Amino acid sequence: MSLIADTLLQFLPAKRKHTPSGWISFNAPCCDDKRQRGGFIQNAGDAVSYHCFNCGFKASWQPGRTISAKMNKLMRDLNVPDDIISQLRLEALRLNQSENTIVRQVIPTFDERALPMDAKSLEEWSTWIELQGWENTDQELINAFCYLRNIRGIDPYSFPFYWTNKVGFKNRIIIPFYKDGKVVGYTARATNDAKPKFISEQQPGYVFNLDRQTHDKEFVIVCEGPFDAISIDGCALLGAEIKDSQNWLLKQLGKEIILVPDRDHEGPRTVEQAIEYGWSVSMPDWPKGVKDVNDAMLKIGRLATLYLITQAKESNSLKIQLRAKKWFTEL
Ligand SMILES: [Zn+2]
To answer: Is the pLDDT score of 2 beyond 80?
Structure first.
């Protein structure tokens, strides 16, 4: 119910006619009308419109807007008492503020961001290596290639990975964050024991790898880390928590969302959140010792990993909870 629509309906002249299209007509209060040429309609979403077909006066209101001077005049013409008018103005203002807050928090926007200085893609670096020779190549660059191939089992050219020889980043592989083709951040993963493991430039609400969720894909697989996502061309939350804005972005794809949680102590909470957002969850029968999607791909390969994920996907919240109880205790 809408306080504003309901109040206006109460104060419309008692003598009224209802048209099949939903208008209510009555003698317009805005002018000297005796032929019921004032029209009032309540539209979807609690919006209201008034139109006088005698003098042409119009007034309208919809949730999220404040009460206009014209709507104020209409209410006065309808003899709505001043204290009720001010109450309605406050109600409209409250709705206006809460709608703006929701929009600001949930629908994220992303500015373009620069990668670390002199960062070049591994493809560019490989050309450079061909020209300079391996003997003149930084050991750290070779480590970056080895890290992807040997530690992660990922083809260095399957994703636009970057590297730079600048201090602080030499021992890292840079994963750019794309959104609509633009770079909006990055994470730089250490290829050795350097701390922190990740140096990130991340904007709130970002979901990794959305750009690769093409129309031909039936569902979107959501993991925690970027290497998990790259392993199977899914998305990554870049953490164990699902943010409202991440849920919003993923829902925009219009696909079934399947969470594959990391099998660790934070996993159960991520699963609970996924249930609240109405996502499916997959907790596959991983081989022993496998804790995440990238581990699984290293052990059994990409196709078998994808097969296990789709086999184990579940949308029923009760079944998800039962499975989670078992899956996380069998660590
Ligand atoms: Zn009028």
So the answer is: no
How many whole angstroms from 14 Cα to the centroid of ligand 1?
17
Say how many Å lie between the CA of residue 44 and the centre of ligand 1. 24
The pTM for the full model equals 0.69
User: Which of the residue ranges 58-67, 73-82, 299-308 would you say has the lowest mean pLDDT?
Assistant: 58-67
CA of 32 to the centre of ligand 1 (A): 7
Confidence of residue 140 (pLDDT cuts 50, 70, 90): very high
Alpha-carbon distance 84 to 81, whole Å?
A: 5
267 backbone dihedrals φ, ψ, rounded to 5°: -55, -45
* pLDDT mean over 178-187: 94
Q: Output the CA 75–ligand 1 centroid distance in Å.
A: 13
Whole-angstrom Cα distance, residue 151 to residue 295? 10
Taking residues 108-120, report their average pLDDT: 88
272: alpha, beta or left? (left if phi > 0; alpha if psi -120 to 50): alpha
**For ligand 1, a single-atom ion, which residues have Cβ within 5 Å?**
28, 30-31, 52, 54-55, 57
Q: How far is the CA of 61 from the centre of ligand 1 (A)?
A: 18
Q: What is the average pLDDT across 62-74?
A: 90
Do residues 191 and 172 touch, judged by C-beta distance below 8 A? yes
**Smallest Cα–Cα separation from 260: which of 148, 245, 242, 106?**
242
Distance (Å) from CA 82 to ligand 1 centroid? 21
Angstrom distances, CA of residue 214 to CA of 19, 209, 255, 287, 310: 47, 11, 10, 30, 18
Burial class (CB in 10 A: 0-12, 13-18, 19+), 129: middle
To which H or E segment does residue 251 belong? helix 244-251
Which whole number is the average pLDDT over 286-298?
Answer: 96
Residue 18 Cα to ligand 1 midpoint, Å, equals: 18
The CA 93 to ligand 1 mean position distance, Å, reads 27
d(CA 260, CA 220): 10
Q: 113 near 186, Cβ under 8 Å?
A: yes
Could you tell me the distance, in angstroms and rounded to a whole number, from the CA of residue 27 to the centre of ligand 1? 9
